[in-house]
Amino acid sequence: xxxxxxxxxxxxxxxxxxxxxxxxxxxxxxxxxxxxxxxxxxxxxxxxxxxxxxxxxxxxxxxxxxxxxxxxxxxxxxxxxxxxxxxxxxxxxxxxxxxxxxxxxxxxxxxxxxxxxxxxxxxxxxxxxxxxxxxxxxxxxxxxxxxxxxxxxxxxxxxxxxxxxxxxxxxxxxxxxxxxxxxxxxxxxxxxxxxxxxxxxxxxxxxxxxxxxxxxxxxxxxxxxxxxxxxxxxxxxxxxxxxxxxxxxxxxxxxxxxxxxxxxxxxxxxxxxxxxxxxxxxxxxxxxxxxxxxxxxxxxxxxxxxxxxxxxxxxxxxxxxxxxxxxxxxxxxxxxxxxxxxxxxxxxxxxxxxxxxxx
Length: 359
Fold this sequence. Notes:
By secondary structure, the protein is an alpha/beta fold. It has a single domain (29-354), classed as Alkaline Phosphatase, subunit A, CATH 3.40.720.10. Helices cover 38% and strands 21% of the residues. It is built from 13 helices and 13 strands. Helix 10 runs parallel beside helix 12. The radius of gyration is 21 Å and the shape is globular. It starts with a helix and ends in a 5-residue tail after the last helix. Residues 1-24 have low confidence and may be disordered.
């Protein structure tokens, strides 16, 4: 009798496991998209060789390469690259959310909302800057940051965190967009308490600096990893599939400054966020993680030395380059992101994962 009970119990457990597997395979996956602005394979290599420990990227075995050129230039800027990721269309440099003729093109936040996705954005720069803006705004030129800020208030993004406060409350038109955010059910703050339990029935906007945030070597500390972690918990609590984009903005700035110390610090800071995302996927297996850069900055090279202490980082210039970039994918459907393809294909690959799944 005991043996029969054991067999029946095992049968029930197997059925439960099978049911869980079927549910996981038919439910739309959540998507974490991490962008290292200015991050190419040399920045990743420098972080690996000079980091004193194994690179967080070593866990990925599904890796691809993207071509990053814009519609008008072999060397893209962040606005055109973000538009390519977010809309699946190449456009001219400086354009955000519009095509080559300046017509609006639907972005991932808008498209995924029709699939009942919750959405989140995190950026070290202003939340109105080129990369984050590409996921919710439509303007002819990236410098129209006051227009971009106004569009964010109506975008429906559930959670955002970054800099850019002055574009909301110190505007040329004197409009206080903080009031507009609050009127649209946002809790808004200029300080972010990571221990705060966020209510799933509200939206959240954290504007933590007047423009871009400070460098990690100064007072920013672990903002990117902590904000991503808090955002992931909040979006998980909403009990719906979600899309979140988080940007490590200042790898790019370090390349423009030709500053190897800043580049390494910002690269390692970004990798902390990658680690947070990997840990989340391990605990929530119906989550796809995609990690890439928008372009490489500085023509970085890791020069040889007899010992690791002698390895040095050099720059061939202080501008963006046209080199192809690695794409790392982890979780369900990661294999879709292998091979060599255009940066616009990331948009289409994400939609191919989403379409046909239960919401």
